[in-house]
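FW: tagging you since you asked about this chain on Friday. Here's the raw sequence from the shared folder, copied in full. Didn't touch anything.
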Amino acid sequence: MPTRPVGVGSETAHSPRRWSTFRVRGNMKDDKIDGFVAIHSDLLKSELSNIFVLQRLDESADPRIPTLATGEDQEKEIASLLETLSYDLGGVPKIIISKEGEEKPVFDTYVDSLIQELLRMFHKTRRAVLKAHAQYVVVESMRQKKEFFMTPPPEEIVLAIEEYFWDSLEVAYLRIASFWDRVGQLLSFSFFNIRQYDKEGFTAIIESIHLNYEPMLPELKSFEEYGRIWDYSKTENDQGLKWLLQRRNTLIHSVGLSSGRNDELAMKPYDSLFNHLERKQQRKLRKAELSIEMKLLNFHFVKLCSLFRDCLVLSDFGAKKCVKRNRT
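HL: got it, structure written out here
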């Protein structure tokens, strides 16, 4: 979980309200400098306010956006799994005993860096999902809860904010897919001792485990954690990882998510013979209504959280069964 920012819930120097008095000392007569200072001050207030508001939304959301562990017992279990996995993969042990005057022991720190990157990516992913939630709440309230406003929000303002929502949704999808690539990097090292992970994706690693180790290790087939990961990875509909990764690839290489509201297209005096980008938007992205898109995003993020422990258990299985590692 991201740490709680200093000053939240109290009127401190860090509170966004106090930044309304932000000034730069000195006699600044140049209009450009004055304009820059004003913009800088507004940007600072905006960014600080955004951080605090997102934190409040995270704390008050019901149901709350999930984390890797729900409760102290699960936190301890995951911490223990990470320590065991690090040790079994040849990482730095928790306790190091050395005598005075002896050279420092040397350990392979790759696996510890790999695990830390995986955890960092999770927090980045969760922040992206939280931001998409925040902008969804704003857009939906402007469209569905107009009684909350003294005057109806102008449609052009609603559309502008909706575009920011699609931007945030796109980032959230990319982050979830990137998280799974980090998991693939961990599994690749655990099962095949491969460190260079530039081209293979998560699904390719799972396929390699399926093809290479299932025939040799019959217990892998009855391994519940592996079964849950395999089922999610091979599912092609919108409840599976293949759908998510295809959407990620389309977003990176071809077209992006947007509101798609452009009345000018209907007024043009011609029809399109064939447009590959429009076809990819329609067939591969298959953009849905905002509420459905949020349900899909939530489903895949919840799946990520629920399968994280399974991925650690599977990685440790590979570390113990598949590659012989000698400590120095």
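FW: Confidence is low (pLDDT under 50) at residues 1-22.
HL: agreed, and The chain has ten helices and no strands.
FW: great, closing this out.
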